Amino acid sequence: MRSQIKLGKVFGIEIGLHYSWFLIALLIVASLYSQFHVKDPEWGNTLILSMAIVTGLLFFVSLLVHELAHSVFARSRGLPVKEITLFALGGVSQIEKEPASAKTEFWMAFAGPLTSAGIGVVCLAARLGAGAASSPLYAMISWLGYINFALAAFNMVPGYPLDGGRILRALIWWKTGDGERATRLAAKTGQAVGFLFIAWGILQFASGAGFGGLWISFIGWFLLTSAGESYKQVGLKHALEGVTARDIMTNDCPSLDGNLNVQHFVDEELLKTGQRCFLITQNRDIAGLVTPHEVKGIDRARWPYTTLSDIMRPLEDLHTVPPETPLQNVLEIMGREGLNQVPVMTNGHLDGILSRAHLLDYLRTQAELKV
């Protein structure tokens, strides 16, 4: 879940929105407008709409604070956090490494619901100074208080990867001492919870709940899919265990003179050979790397007048790894940096290239042989 719209940074963590956020934001504002209108139509349409918008925005601020609690705790334990994305089902923190212990996993997961419950307590306590129970401010604060309690309760559902599912994983991990087994069991529980949500949503829809029932089913589908992916990741981690970059890198990446123009490169090398990664040399030394990605950034009319040296990614700007780097770490680097190829180097000397295609081929072979 990546952000399409960047909002800035909080505590050094990038905050962004996924396009699906606008859908849920619109639905929440419409729902709040309807609730406030039923509560006291005498407030007037303009005031009610303003209340709905402000309350909805404050709700998303509380969601962001919930996710920040996860992220800040993770960073305090040395786990890098790339960004927080708000989307249709709430928010997600892009924590780039798994916690090293069950204790860290437990408190990192529990920090979110605890924060939401704390916000709920503060909001309900603040009602004492919000005037009469029939006032707009009282209605806004009350709704925010109750919804944050509901958010805390929902996240405690033991459906991995919800916070409750991660807490369940931490407890199983602590009890068995096996993190992989804990993830498998928590993921299976999450899939079961997802099936229950889907069935419940369908029954609600059939009973006349309308969109609310479909929304419950959608949440169930999300849990089912996410838990299934988490289960697959355990298998992936196991498949990569003990394998290093040296084991699957290739050193047959073609070398081309940097003075070649892009038109010749596309016509004679890229299209005819099927290769997607080329080393570029200058004065017989390797100077950089060119892939189809660099070519796509150049207007076609400029191809005959642009050299490979002009578009290559210089070797010193590339993220490189030593040959003994575990393959799991290489995969994390590729995901974090958005890379398709990683040069493998020793003391400034290029040993080979490791690409996503090599990783996929390796995993495909393992799957075919049922290793």
Write the layout of secondary structure elements.
Blueprint: E1 5-10, E2 13-17, H1 20-39, H2 45-76, E3 81-87, E4 90-95, H3 102-126, H4 136-155, H5 163-176, H6 179-209, H7 211-240, H8 245-248, E5 255-257, H9 262-273, E6 278-282, E7 285-290, H10 292-296, H11 308-311, E8 313-314, H12 327-337, E9 341-346, E10 349-355, H13 356-368
Parallel strand pairs: 2-3, 5-6
Antiparallel strand pairs: 1-2, 3-4, 6-7, 7-8, 9-10
Number of strands: 10
Strand order of the largest sheet: 1-2-3-4
Count of helical segments? 13
Shape: elongated
Mean pLDDT across residues: 85
Low-confidence parts: none
Alpha carbon gap, first and last residue: 31 Å
Oligomer: single chain
Estimate what percentage of residues fall within beta strands: 5-15%
Bin the helical content.
Answer: 55-70%
Structure overview:
With 371 residues, the protein is an alpha+beta fold. The chain folds into two domains: 152 residues, no CATH class; 124 residues, Roll (CBS-domain), CATH 3.10.580.10. It has 13 helices and ten strands. The strands form three sheets. The protein has a four-stranded mixed sheet. A four-stranded mixed sheet has the order 5-6-7-8. Strands 9-10 form a two-stranded antiparallel sheet. Helix 1 crosses helix 2, helix 3 runs antiparallel to helix 5 and helix 5 packs antiparallel against helix 6. The radius of gyration is 26 Å and the shape is elongated. The two termini are 31 Å apart. 32% of the residues are buried. The mean pLDDT is 85.
